[in-house]
Amino acid sequence: MQIVPFTEEHREPLLALSLRAWEPVFPLLEPAVPAFVYETFYPEGWRKRQFDDLSATLDTEPQNVDVALIDGLPVGWVCTRLHPEDTMGEVYVLAVDPPHQGKGVGAALMQHSLERARSNGMRMMMVETGDDPGHAPARRVYEGAGFERWPVARYFKDITPAAE
After folding, report:
1. How is the chain split into domains, by residue range?
2. What CA–CA distance (Å, rounded) separates 31 from 28?
């Protein structure tokens, strides 16, 4: 596996694998939230909203995106945002194609994101996810990587060299 900076040729494969990655999440999310909340966020369906949101991320901050490749094909990606005012990095998007989940791709992307933030002087990392059953696998990954859960379901990790 190789992790490389995003290029435009990665765009469509990343969007497609992201929708596959979230496919099992949304059927569990919908019954876990009030109907009006789900309908407000996803009036045209979750696929459209995810596609639009992820497209915007790739289009507006390609410099923050890194792509995992296996045999030259995209299998996952991470978007790392930096918040210098808080000396905090943020794992904004982390997606791995389902056939490659559980094989270390997500962990490698997470480590790459941590290194990106650390090398830019950030002191801690944050990642947010849902508290619904569909996001339980994501919470396990983040907690397994050493992130600590806060009551608002934000995950933080001190990434200064002395803390590890």
Report:
1. 2-163
2. 6
2-163 falls under which CATH superfamily?
Answer: Gcn5-related N-acetyltransferase (GNAT) (3.40.630.30)
**pLDDT per residue over 122-145, tens digit each?**
999 999 988 888 888 888 888 988
Closest to 107 (Cα-Cα) out of 82, 135, 149, 138? 138
Measure the CA–CA gap between 143 and 110, rounded to whole angstroms: 12
Per the listing, tokens 């002191």 go with 123
Tokens 């590890």 label which residue? 164
Task: State the DSSP H helix or E strand holding residue 81, giving kind and residue range, or none if neither.
Answer: strand 73-83
Sequence letter at residue 84: P
Quote the CA–CA distance of 20 and 26 in Å, as a whole number. 11
CA atoms within 13 A of residue 105's CA, in its CB half-sphere: 25
The region, left, alpha or beta by phi > 0 then psi within -120 to 50, assigned to residue 10 is alpha
Question: Residue 64: which of 122, 21, 138 has the closest Cα?
Answer: 122
User: Which runs of consecutive H residues, i.e. helices, occur in the chain?
Assistant: 11-22, 26-29, 35-41, 46-60, 105-119, 136-144
pTM of the model: 0.88
